[in-house]
Amino acid sequence: MRTDTIRAAAVQIAPDLSGRAGTIERVLNAIAEAADKGAQFIVFPETFVPYYPYFSFILPPVQQGAPHMDLIAEAVVVPSPETQAVADAAAKRGVVVVLGVNERDHGSLYNTQLIFDADGTLALKRRKITPTYHERMVWGMGDGAGLKVADTAVGRVGALACWEHYNPLARYALMTQHEEIHAGHFPGSLVGPIFGEQIEVTMRHHALEAGCFVVNATGWLTEEQIAEIHPDPKLQKGIRDGCMTCIISPEGRHLADPLTEGEGILIADLDMRLIAKRKRMMDSVGHYARPEMLSLLHDTRPAVTRHTRDDAPFPDPAFQEEQDV
């Protein structure tokens, strides 16, 4: 039964750059550790399995072939034994897990967020709607079908990845579905210190505007991993810092000191009554909205490359009658 207080965990750890098996093991260990600390809701970083494509930020396209093929080989199919392992862990510990993966769908990769409910069911699979800058060399685009809130054991959970948070209509689509806990995903160890500063502003603003809790996880790279990705110290600067793992209240306040470097699991208790307290003053999709002037059109149809029609014989009899006239 849902309570007024939910214990949340935001995980900032390094992936295993050798592939998905090692990273999944780290995910399962982190779920167990967070659950031992009482966590009921656990968020991992953007495309954590097998790892974020850091190579695409610092390598020119002509040099990306080999690492891109490695990522394709180690990417996750949904469903698969890897996703089942996470589902089993969620069910065993009775926790809701939000995990970022590189999803392989035949010849394409997608930046995908998976929400596993506390009984292990996959409550939501969504793809980042627009990859950012260098990411467009790696991932395809998602669609509006995944831009939805999942009703879970801890409440109504929405999720966006990285710069999707700079698309106000994407965020508003989740607000209109009354998300109570928002899972944010960023890569971490990218761009430099300014990235972490921007993440903090973005997460606090969404919490205030949506009147929800934000649990945000960014990734981390060790010095050895940075050197493994590229030996040039100048290029290594592009894959350092930029971390801001944080948990924010609907009033825009940090509920624990954020993690900006190193590995760790951030834990905080979410007093769900704060949602009503905030929305009493400002409900962006309720009494503070003006739908007669401003509203959102959200196309929830999946984007597909093949359409079939088998509801009438060919040629269409109605069409043939028109031709006969």
Tell me about this structure.
By secondary structure, the chain is α/β, with parallel strands linked by helices. 30% of the residues lie in helices and 21% in strands. The protein has helices spanning 20-36, 55-58, 65-74, 81-93, 168-175, 193-210, 223-229, 233-236, 273-281, 317-324, and strands at 5-12, 41-43, 96-105, 108-116, 122-127, 150-152, 155-161, 181-186, 213-218, 246-248, 264-271. The strands form two sheets. Strands 5-4-3-2-1-11 form a six-stranded mixed beta sheet. The mean pLDDT is 95.
Described by strand count, sense and barrel closure, the largest sheet is: 6 strands, mixed
Put simply, the count of helices is 10
Beta-strand residue fraction: 15-25%
CATH topology name, in short, is Nitrilase/N-carbamoyl-D-aminoacid amidohydrolase
Average per-residue pLDDT, rounded, comes to 95
Kindly give the count of domains: 1
**What is the helix fraction of residues, given as a range?**
25-40%
Q: Which ranges are low-confidence, i.e. pLDDT below 50, for 5 or more consecutive residues?
A: none
Class by helix and strand content? alpha/beta
Computed Rg = 21 Å
Order of helices and strands: EHEHHHEEEEEHEHEHHEEHH
CATH superfamily: Carbon-nitrogen hydrolase
The CATH architecture category equals: 4-Layer Sandwich
CATH class: Alpha Beta
Number of strands: 11
Shape: globular
Strand order of the largest sheet: 5-4-3-2-1-11
- Termini separation: 67 Å
